[in-house]
Amino acid sequence: MHDKTIAELVAGLKAGEFSSVELTRHYLDRIERHDERLNSYITVCAEHAMRQAEAADRAIAAGDAVTLTGIPLAQKDIFCTEGIRTTCGSRMLDNFVAPYDADVVERCNAAGMVMLGKTNMDEFAMGSSNETSFYGPVRNPWDAEAVPGGSSGGSAAAVAARLAPVATGTDTGGSIRQPAALCGITGLKPTYGRVSRWGMIAFASSLDQGGVMARTAEDAALLLNVIAGFDERDSTSADQPVPDYTATLEEPLDGLKIGLPKEYFAEGLDDDVARAIEAAVGEYRRLGAQIKEISLPNTSLAVPTYYVIAPAECSSNLSRFDGVRFGYRCENPRDLEDLYKRSRGEGFGAEVKRRIMIGTYALSAGYYDAYYLKAQQVRHLIREDFVDAFKEVDVILGPTSPSVAFNLGEKSSDPVAMYLSDIYTIAVNLAGLPGISIPAGFSGKRPIGLQLIGDYFGEARLLNVAHRYQQVTDWHLQVPESFAE
Amino acid sequence: MALEKADVERIAHLARLGIDTDDIADYARDLSGILELVEQMNRVDTEGVEPMAHPLEMAQRLRPDEVTETNQREKFQRIAPRVEAGLYLVPKVIE
Amino acid sequence: MEWEAVIGLEIHAQLATKSKIFSGASTAYGAEPNTQACAVDLGLPGVLPVLNGEAVRMACKFGLAVNAEIARRSVFARKNYFYPDLPKGYQISQYELPIVGRGQLSIELEDGSTKTIGITRAHLEEDAGKSLHEDFHGMTGIDLNRAGTPLLEIVSEPDLRSAKEAVAYMKKLHMLVRYLEICDGNMQEGSFRCDANVSVRPKGERRFGTRTEIKNINSFRFVERAIDFEIERQIDLLEGGGTVVQETRLYDAAKGETRSMRSKEEAMDYRYFPDPDLLPLELDDRWLEEVRADLPELPDAKRERFMYEYGLSAYDASVLTASRELADFYEEVERSSGGEAKLAANWVMGDFSAALNRDNLEIGACPVNAEMLGRLVRRIADNTISGKIAKQVFEAMWEGEGDPDSIIEKRGLKQITDTGAIEQAIDEVLAANPQQVEQYRAGKEKLLGFFVGQVMKATQGKANPAQLNELLRKKLNS
């Protein structure tokens, strides 16, 4: 059952080949057998899931079901789930039982989906390797020595190891796409504003976006249909109609103009990754696309810019964690200062503290113009690069990450080295564009990801371009051996 | 831009983060490294460029003036560390 | 050395919306702690702000009423600092691009002259919660009901030159926000709060002296005293060779002095930056024109009109236009009285206001309505009753005995205007007091009052005073 795509599972449920309860039990069983060595889940919601599965079976029997009714999924532990612990990978929220559901969660529940549990992640979504989680690192299902990527490492690993058919993730600088690439799955970050941020614990408000992590583009499209949409509770939510993302998957690619940014193929890119992308480009030519070299001149400024804006916004977003109304509170605070400093000092990990401090510094008196204001100006230039590029091409193609998964511990002591793994994904968040990563090969045991970047609200086309590639390749169907059964 | 221990202490105080004295030097080193990365922004001239605060060109939507929230104090305070008589308790604040 | 005081006021007016500026929780005063603090107000993880359109409208009304520029594009910014009554660890406010720009307000000084005070800007922001320092085993209790209530912060130019001017400005602003119905102005409940920036300089000097900020003074009287004290304090300090320290001070009403807040108070670095959860607020001309069309007649215009239309003095017009309720009430009384503008004014400002104050009532909630009072005035004007009797009738109306005519009827209070009846009463009194008559005719003119009193007693006060006087003199002098 765990090798079926969602489309196949949906058909199976409809045909009565199995029930949602059986399907759910199957996944819960796999989680129990396999997750100890993967550590992809922080909270498994066995009872809650069974109740939802039972309700789904009743709905299916009564003819009340919608497309994804009865399909299990995993929710990244950054989405508030009412009555269920929501930790954001942090000691600060270790005891936080959310009193409300995120919009994404509400939509999945309304669609009759079954929540298997909350997945592991880098603390407060800050990281590219899922090594900063309070709940321990997640391992790459393809190679236990390797990181799965981050911050949605738990969701990526769970889907790759078939411990969930699909999962949600969030992406601020690459946190869906990069782990998708490192774990050999399909990960989509929609256009900024496409998915509501209500109930999605904020890291960097102008960059964060919720998205989907699945094994195929078609599966991703099915879940995107459920979670995309306008939400009046989010002022940054886009009031744009949601198309059926599955309707245009089969569109032929003849005449599609694909841009290859020359800056993405410069030094720093792994040879194996470069070769895989080159091969993929060949596939796209055969599918009828035209390939064009383009330039995104400000590419090298994306990471520096991001590491002002994201920390600045997060330094402010994380001020609410103060031990007063919820979350971690230190023992016996002497006075107010002590309450704040020890609750936050003990509740937050080192990477979170580093980013809060960089952000605080960048916004502080005398430094605002040089750092924050400057970064917002460079951000404008980076966006203009893409606007110009999309006048000439329909989608942009490149590697998702400069290398495949690195080893656990390899980069965790050098923050800047870690930051540079997001070199191809970050600019997409700065511009607010949609991006998808799909499997395109292997380097040894470790998967290689290909990134496609689309124009604003161009998710349907991205999924189409991804899907057509998946019809002529089988990278996305590969299974990590040790999780096969 | 290299940060000194005093800078780290000042920033940590502004952000109300308790940092162990033993760790200050490490933070100073790490933060200085990040600032070095960030200063690469200065390679490009941004004279006259409008700062971009939001990816989408949208204006703020207005909400009608209606009371839509009910009293859920019990639910919200169930997860609070210290509450008494419906109030959140903190160490005494001297004005 | 002659000194000049330079004062600027920052007023925080709580806008009278039903729900909060960024959430749908109620803003009603006096609820049980934390029963009006929803997830957004509590700053729970994952919550987001959505802007209340009515707060924007109210801010624009204010801006239009003080002839200010309304920003077609304004931005919300985060003001970051840590305090337990500030749940998110930042206040959503406006910094570089406020919704209302430069405007002005004219104030009336004690000598009758007017002065124009500049308004630098006004911006929207959210209020914080409240700290209760009563003993919770040595802890402080936090109530977040107030967190998220919309505030309009109004900043004046440093154009004020005395405590009295400052109070006049504050009172004018207070009246204006109530006229506009954007704020209830209740200072006890904290709907209208004032911070004063005070400095002094030698007369003729153009540079500003160092200023101090006096925070949270919540009555007109305290504002005047606090500012006077602070001016004196600074002058004494400078004349003694000292320097004024730029700091925040609190007014101690009991001692009548300002004192420095905890000296550990370092200059706060608020790290302002545009709030990424909110988009720029864009207003178009058509929307603003609708707001403008909805503005009520403003206080100055109404006062002018009262002087012109009703022939009232500047003073009377000012008193009657002190609030919209009072002005509307007066106009209805005047209308219902058949156009007795002056008499109606006297009654509204006199007996009616006195009764309101005595019983601590609001105009809308008192037993005598404008129409009824107007009819009472009409009965005086048409000589049905005398002014003195009218007071009795008014008291009876206040007690709920009914409308003027039925009270006059029931109690038989109609004025006696029948000359015959008055003459008869006079004859009886004169006959009963021959000695006084003699004395009067011998030159003791003062006794006229005595006779008037006796006739009034005999007629239960109902004799028409004018006729009584005339007839009495005639008889006495004959």
Task: Indicate the percent of residues in helices of chain B.
Answer: 25-40%
Count of beta strands of chain A: 11
For the record, give the distance between the C-alpha atoms at the N and C termini of chain B, rounded to a whole number.
38 Å
User: What general outline of chain A do the C-alpha atoms trace?
Assistant: globular
Q: Would you report the number of β strands of chain B?
A: 3
CATH top level class name of the domain at 6-256 and 436-483 in chain A: Alpha Beta
Say what the CATH topology of the domain at 6-256 and 436-483 in chain A is.
Amidase signature (AS) enzymes
In DSSP terms (H or I, runs of 4 or more residues), the helix count of chain B works out at: 3
CATH homologous superfamily placement of the domain at 6-256 and 436-483 in chain A = Amidase signature (AS) domain
Global Rg of chain A? 21 Å
- The structure class of chain B reads alpha+beta
Distance between the termini of chain A: 10 Å
The best one-word shape of chain B is flat
Average pLDDT number of chain A: 96
State the CATH architecture of the domain at 6-256 and 436-483 in chain A.
Alpha-Beta Complex
**Biggest chain-to-chain interface with counts:** A-B, 71 and 53 residues
| Computed CA radius of gyration of chain B, to the nearest angstrom | 23 Å
- Report the sheet with the most strands of chain B, covering strand number, pairing sense and barrel closure: 2 strands, antiparallel
Strand order of the largest sheet of chain B: 2-3
Summarize the structure in words.
The complex is a heterotrimer of chains A (485), B (95) and C (478). Chain A contains 15 helices and eleven strands. Chain A has 485 residues and is an alpha/beta fold. Chain A has a domain at 6-256 and 436-483: Amidase signature (AS) domain (Amidase signature (AS) enzymes, Alpha-Beta Complex), CATH 3.90.1300.10. The mean pLDDT of chain A is 96. In chain B, helix 1 (5-14) crosses helix 2. The longest helix of chain B has 18 residues, at 21-38. Chain B is flat and about 55 Å long. The model of chain B has no long low-confidence stretch (mean pLDDT 92). Chain C has three domains: 3-287, no CATH class; 297-411, no CATH class; 419-477, Arc Repressor Mutant, subunit A (Orthogonal Bundle), CATH 1.10.10.410. In chain C, strand 12 (212-217), helix 4 and strand 13 (248-252) form a beta-alpha-beta unit. The radius of gyration of chain C is 30 Å and the shape is elongated. Strand 3 (87-91) of chain B pairs antiparallel with strand 9 (139-143) of chain C.
